[in-house]
Design a protein that fits this description.
The chain is of the alpha/beta class. Helices cover 34% and strands 22% of the residues. It has 13 helices and 14 strands. The relative contact order is 0.19.
Length: 327
Amino acid sequence: MRTTLVRTAAVGAAALLALGLAGCSGSGDSGSGSATSGSSDPTSLTLALVPSQDQSGLVETAAPLTDYLSEALGIEVTGVVSKDYQAAVEAMGAGQAQIGFLPSLQLWQASDMYGAKTVLQTERNGNITYPAQFMTNNPDKYCKDKPVERDGMLFCNGADAMKGPAGLDQITKVKGAKVAVLGPGSPAGYIYPMVALKDAGLNIDTDFEKIPVTANDASVLAVYNGDAEVGFSFWDARSIVVKDTPDVGQKVVVFALTDEIPNDGVALSSDLSADLQKRITTALEDYSNSAEGSKVLESIYSITKLAPADPSSLDVVANAAQALGLQ
């Protein structure tokens, strides 16, 4: 039997009523017409996105997706960006969002706590998993070999293979450093790197200084700007900021990769009818298979394809969270 995780970063019920979400489709309707089980389909839907990168970027890029869904479904779809990973799960549980583009842990939570159905998972260049990365602006300390370049980005300790785990024998050197970390709800920005550090014998509460950041690109920039010596993120979050910081791949070196993490995906509220769930799933999968849709999804979350989900694959993420006491 699954153990329900406590929503460690969850906002209170009163705050939830205010959503804590930023609209991105131009409509003020937040899905208040959502249906309960057995009732007719809703007249509007809310799609929740999590801020894996700068929120304003998601606001600008998600509108084509919600416009497409509105037309394909014949139901107005409003896009929103949650203030953090956990708020998106809570919005689905409170009936404030019916569609969620969520990281793997939040997919598991939405299902376990609120009966949401995980219908699709992402593919990125044919990969259905990804590692979290340790990156640094001090390669002399963390690299046991000379950094090598791949696609304009520097890696060391075998991390250029782009498959985890790699270089984890060097992460004990994080002791005493300033480390950019996302919130506890982030599989790549917190959970998997913290589990790796704990397994390496570090005290994750006292052995290094945590520099909180709100998203993966902020973690990269914290290392790039020297605010932190080490940062955590998904592989390879440096690509998000390379347009504005062309030398990021030379100044920020990836020196270790964690075990592989199941890809993020799409969850649908249990309040929606089976027919509407199927229509949404088909519309999203078709969109990801089109040239225009693939381009939009890649701009939002670097998604190249949406494929049928394997909900059982998410259990390993829940186990990792539980190893940190997030339960």
